Amino acid sequence: MHDRIERATGVLTSIALVAAAALLAPAFAGVAPSAALAAVALGVTVLAFVVREEVRALAPAPWLGLYFEAVWAGVAVATLVLVAFLDATAAELQTLGAVVGLIGLFNYLLRPVYFTLGSLLSRIARAV
Q: Which key words are in the record (predicted)?
């Protein structure tokens, strides 16, 4: 069970960090969210989804492949944030990127809680 929790939290964290990077890069360049930026992000999402197996092969270690393969999902999350906040400024986009990144890191820091809950649920399931 701990392996599944480890993989799930790792993938969710990597998705959030990729989304944060995809939001922070244009924001630091002074680009505010727009329909054109959202369209570019959507195009990158589709491209990353199509080549996800090739991206997975770029992983320096086999166990990292799952995280590399999830890059497209991170860009998809960034696209959703861009579409939801089209009227934001570049500074607000920086804040949104930081918040998405913090959510990912918070998810990673909650792993001990997830492990404890998983163990508790396993024990309850075996007792029933």
A: Membrane, Transmembrane, Transmembrane helix
Task: For tokens 């890191």, name the residue.
Answer: 105
pTM, two decimal places: 0.87
**Distant-in-sequence, close-in-space partners of 36: CB < 8 Å, separation ≥ 6:** none
88-126 pLDDT, tens digit per residue, is 999 999 999 999 999 999 999 998 898 899 889 889 999
Where in the chain are the domains?
1-127
Grade residue 2 by pLDDT with cuts at 50, 70 and 90.
confident
